[in-house]
Amino acid sequence: MSTNILKGKRGIIFGALNEQSIAWKVAERAHEEGATFVLTNAPIAMRMGEINKLAENTGSEIIPADATSIEDIENLISKSVEILGGKIDFILHSIGMSINVRKGRHYTDQKYDFTQKGLDVSALSFHKVMQTAMKQDAMNDWGSILALTYIAAQRTFPDYNDMADNKSYLESIARSFGYHYGVAKKVRVNTISQSPTMTTAGSGVKGFNEFINYSDQMSPLGNADALACADYCIAMFSDLTRYVTMQNLFHDGGFSNTGVTQSVIDKFSD
Fold first, then answer.
1. DSSP of the chain, one letter per residue?
2. Which of 79, 150, 169, 259 is most buried, with most CB under 10 Å away?
3. Nearest to 146 by CA among 264, 246, 19, 45
4. pLDDT in tens, 82-131
5. Separation of alpha carbons 60 and 56, rounded Å
6. How confident is the model at residue 204 (pLDDT cuts 50, 70, 90)?
7. Model pTM?
8. In the chain, pLDDT over 70 holds for what percent of residues?
9. Mean pLDDT score, 120-144
10. Nearest CA to 20 among 42, 44, 60, 51?
């Protein structure tokens, strides 16, 4: 049910690949709540995905951009302000990649060129987006910037590989840049640590199906799905959360604070 909670707000959404994507759900919900926005993804991702359908359904324009390229980001942000008719109120960073994971390389046997590329795409790009937006004075006061992360930034999940390191850096950037953007423009910066979610990126992690079932059993409320995460993002983009910043916000059905559940204990009983 729409409440027009984002009516009049303008945004940029990174990472909508297909209907499984959390960014796709965020775009649909933002549109329902009255926002206008630009969609963006890397050119190669756009060729793989279905973003044109999403743009048509939400009345949005698409600006291809490599999030590791300062030139592309500068173009994206300046054109978005032009297209949307004013400064930006919200940005969603929903991109991440590990070539080591894709190539099946163990964490103890990384190819460091792969590692550096994954870090650039998954984390450093977040800094580049915010730095560019700040230099262009592209964000409205009290704007909201979000990035999606995962609890492997704090705890060890062996098969998450170097993505855990990428997410740790991503969360640190949110805290550090969030301080400076808050002082300068009252812009708030947060990360949302989401339940494991069946997306194109998530499904590439070894043992993901087994782990998503384990996580569901370990969460008092069960796993939060992509649409629920989108709803949380909408709340964070709204004026109702103006004083929340520099936080890593767990959206995981209680998984992050649960030691063990009875359903898991029962699996080990005789």
1. ----TTTT-EEEEE---STT-HHHHHHHHHHHTT-EEEEE--HHHHHHS-HHHHHHHHT-EE----TT-HHHHHHHHHHHHHHHTS-EEEEEE-----HHHHTT--GGG--HHHHHHHHIIIIIHHHHHHHHHHHTT-EEEEEEEEEEE-GGGTS--GGGTTHHHHHHHHHHHHHHHHHHHHHHH--EEEEEEEPP--STTGGGSTTHHHHHHHHHHTSTT----HHHHHHHHHHHHSGGGTT--S-EEEESTTGGG-S--HHHHHTT--
2. 150
3. 246
4. 999 999 999 999 999 999 999 999 999 999 999 999 999 999 999 999 99
5. 7
6. low
7. 0.95
8. 96
9. 98
10. 51
**Residue 249 pLDDT > 70, yes or no?**
yes
What is the residue-averaged pLDDT of the chain? Answer: 94
Q: Measured at the alpha carbon of residue 44, what is the angle toward residues 121 and 9, in degrees to the nearest 5? A: 70
What class has domain 10-266? alpha beta
Torsion of CA 50, 41, 211, 168, to 10 degrees: -170
pLDDT at 155 over 80: yes
Structure tokens at 52: 């044109």
* Band of pLDDT at residue 201, cut at 50, 70 and 90: low
Residue of 214, 99, 235 lying closest to 151 (CA atoms): 214
Report d(CA 228, CA 218) in Å as an integer: 18
Phi, psi of 106 (to 5 degrees): -70, 155
| Residue where the block lists tokens 């730095």 | 131
**Largest distance between two CA atoms of the chain:** 65
